[in-house]
Amino acid sequence: MNRHLNLLFTAIGNIIRNKVRSIVLILCLIAVLFPFVTALSISEGIKFQSLISVEEGADIYVTSDHYGSNAPISLQHLQRFQKMEGVVKVFPRVVGRSYFANRLATLVGIPAENIPKSIRLMQGEMFREKGEVVVGKGLAKDFQLQIGVRFTLSVNSSKIFKVSGIFDSDTTIWSSNLILMRFEDASEFFQMRGMATDILIYTRPGYAPLLAKEIQENMGVSNPDSSGPPLRVQDKSLVKRYFQRGFNYKAGVFTALFTVALALAIPALLVVSGFGQTERRKEIGVLKATGWQTQEVMEMVTLENLVISLTSAPLAILLAMAWLKWFNGAFIAQFFIAEIGLMAPFPVPSRFLPLPCLFAFLFAMVLTMVGSLYSTWRTATIPPAEAMR
Amino acid sequence: MSRKIRTYLLFLVVLIALTVLAIAWDQYSWKRIHPDQMVAFQRMVGGIGMGAISTPIWNFINFDPRIQPVDDSTLWPIPGGYSYGPDRTATVSYFEEIPVNQLILQRDTMDHLKK
């Protein structure tokens, strides 16, 4: 045990003695690990919000299917769905998009009776009258929208909207560029009266798969007798599959990009850790000449890498945490959440779980080991006189 | 053991302890979050948004696959059609279109194959 401790102290001594080399190595590792930790924590934060979106959403979503794509559905289906056994609630929804100046905004129309009393706004109140809308904080901030401001959008400039409220930034990331209005206003704005983008069905527990199947069979693509275009039915289990697949790290393009960065980092670190290689060779030569075994030299270098990794991984984690929590991920979050700009208009969700942090440490270990172990072994196995030359 | 080594060891222990505490604090703060406003909002709109994007740009599917579960960018390269969405890259989520089997083999076709 004493021998291992002595090797550890020698390794720390080496790190302190080769200050420049150690600092460069730690900074390189922080540069590699910082985006990794940041991305994983943002991913976990969004996952949390996304799960709420899935769980609190409807049990079944029904739209029309036009040429294989989603299309508006007639409100005539509403009554039929309401009469089905096991159905608790049915309501139509309009989800569309339109440019608000140069910003793409999501326009959502819902029946007024669907507004809960518990909803809290940053300013103003929920819409009550025709033409009133609630806007996201991102839109309100960028375009200095105040309560009572009237505006029109070029899609239908005859429709005048009035801002009645501004969403709280804590709601979700998707409410930032959202304009919420009454269902009738949205239908009027998009000039699609009697239609909805989707019909949302809430069912009693256990009924959703059966009802989804029934709707699909009676009016789906496979039924040649159904009049009008076929319907597309999505139930909660399908939405959950999207959720699971969408946040699978292997499926994310980020992982592919990070793997490339990692692959480039290994040779870079090989060069960096070879910084002062001549001095290193001499050191190993002296150690060998004074009776050190190759195994001991290797152990000392491994311990050196361990200490370097134990220094850089926590520093990268703390830096990522400070940047995301205190500076709201300024300049960085935009790489992981699309279309938010340099400064996110909402609190960037981030969640630091122990496992990704452990991965960060393991990454650091792998990088430093790949960069130093082979060169050390080669130097340690040649005669000491040759190594010291 | 020199004083410098002792100081470095102490720094390392403090750094690791600080990191563990920071992770534990983050875990605790997430547990304390009462996402009542998120729940109220999502119940009100019927569930909206899933991916790491706040605007429905290029592919609606990356904003919410419930709203547009068909990936329009796969229609490319139809002349005049959509091009690949640049916003599909680098974000921490990516929704792929889940294939749905719509193939139905008719009985007489099967009989014909048997013959």
Which sheet architecture does the biggest sheet of chain B show? Answer: none
State the end-to-end distance of chain A: 34 Å
| Helix-strand string of chain A | HHEEEHEEEEHEEEHEEHEHHHHHH
Shape of chain A: elongated
Relative helix content of chain A = 40-55%
Instruction: Tell me, briefly, the overall form of chain B.
Output: elongated
Average pLDDT score of chain B: 79
Largest inter-chain contact set: A-B, 92 and 63 residues
Number of domains of chain A: 2
Rounded mean pLDDT of chain A is 87
Coarse structural class of chain A? alpha+beta
Briefly, what is this?
Chain A is an alpha+beta fold. Chain A contains twelve helices and 13 strands. The model of chain A has no long low-confidence stretch (mean pLDDT 87).
Task: Give your account of this protein's structure.
- The complex is a heterodimer of chains A (389) and B (115).
- Chain A is α+β, with helices and mostly antiparallel strands and 389 residues long.
- Chain A has helices at 2-17, 19-55, 77-83, 137-142, 183-189, 208-219, 236-246, 253-273, 277-289, 294-326, 354-380, 384-388, and strands spanning 60-66, 69-71, 73-74, 87-100, 103-110, 121-124, 132-135, 150-153, 156-167, 178-182, 195-196, 198-203, 231-235.
- In chain A, the strands form two sheets. In chain A, strands 1, 2, 4, 5, 6, 7, 8, 9, 10, 12 and 13 form an eleven-stranded mixed β-sheet that branches. Chain A has a two-stranded antiparallel sheet with strand order 3-11.
- In chain A, helix 2 (19-55) runs antiparallel to helix 7 (236-246).
- The two termini of chain A are 34 Å apart.
- With 115 residues, chain B is an all-alpha fold.
- Chain B has a domain at 34-88.
- Chain B is 45% helix and 0% strand.
- Chain B has helices at 3-32, 36-45, 60-63, 107-114.
